[in-house]
Amino acid sequence: MFTGIIQEIGRVQSAILAKGNLVFDIKAIQITPKVGIGASVSINGACQTVIICQGDHFKVEAVRETLSRSNLGSLKSGSLVNLELPLGLGDLLHGHLVQGHVDCQATVTEIKLVEGSTLLTFEYPGQYDRYIIEKGSIAVDGVSLTVVEVSLGKCQVSLIPHTIESTTFRFIKVGDKVNLEFDMIAKYIEKMVSPSQNKINADFLKEHGF
User: What is the largest CA-CA distance in the chain?
Assistant: First the structure.
């Protein structure tokens, strides 16, 4: 579990294909000393398992599901990535609950500077609209952000200068693909109230004296 607060920008040293998977070697001076083999690391919002640690860099192996869902498949030597270590029990929750399970990719359609902040607009498959609300939370490339505006298949977030300087958003441009993870609480609520899960019906009410 993560919070969407990026701790370091890492640099991909290499991306090597191995039996359909991609093995990434990532240089991260601050994070690497804190992880070991088997540890979890969020890379652009995708939770990955560390398989090798050496000096100031570590390796992870991304499987086909991750590569098809996220922008990790487009990473190459020199690519910069957002990194975050998992939330520990008792730690402060500064962002929001982020699982590190990317739902889909979105395309950046507009970047606008407005009175000291940057408005970032992106488009995504409309089927995910039901998980987004104005002033709700969304993880974009692993960064916890607040939704400013939402319409059919389109969402806008506002970035403060600190967020831009502390993440790969400082290099983002129109046309780029970003990873989205929608609010996990919204997904659970949807399942609980869906007709297939809702047990409150005429028979239930009759059985309980209504």
Answer: 67
Q: What is the DSSP string of 130-198?
A: GG--TT-EEEETTEEEEEEEEETTEEEEEE-HHHHHHSGGGG--TT-EEEEE--HHHHHHHHHHSTTT-
CA-based nearest residue to 130, from 198, 186, 179, 69: 186
Give the chain's radius of gyration (CA, Å): 19
Percentage helix, strand, coil, to 5, in the chain? Answer: 20, 40, 40
Residues 113-125: pLDDT tens digits? 998 899 999 999 9
Task: Name the amino acid, one letter, at 180.
Answer: L
| pLDDT 10s digits, 27-42 | 999 999 999 999 999 9
Domain boundaries, the chain: 8-84, 104-193
Residue 193, both tokens: 């109230």
Which residue type is seen at 59? K
Was domain 104-193 assigned CATH 2.40.30.20? yes
Supply φ then ψ for residue 85, to 5 degrees. -85, 160
CATH number of 8-84: 2.40.30.20
Q: Tell me the two tokens of residue 201.
A: 């019906």
